[in-house]
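thought: fold this chain, then report.
action: predict
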Amino acid sequence: MRKHRGTPDPPCAVMGADELVSHLFRMAPDADSIVYAFDILRVDLDGTEAVPSFRPEDLRSLVKLCQVMAFAILDDGWVSDDCRTELTQLWHELDAVTSKWNRGPNGTSHS
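observation:
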């Protein structure tokens, strides 16, 4: 995201899940509102290349990253009460899904 004179805005958060990374940007189009924008990139295992394309095996990581992004936006604190409620609900719903991925068939956690 860019400021008016072409100066890049620094992200307000950088987060990741497995090979996926995201930069979260906070922008203020006017004095009364805050808008968030983000990118998502896949970084190769040696960290030398980041690309905006994904593979089918990235889907679980994408769900995890959505959960982390919801938390990051909530933690940043510049959201309306309605948005806070929606993001909190989303975070809990995604947590219910992702926590199942870490459990074995008998309900015990994988290390």
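thought: worth noting. Residues 13-101 form one domain.
final: tokens above.
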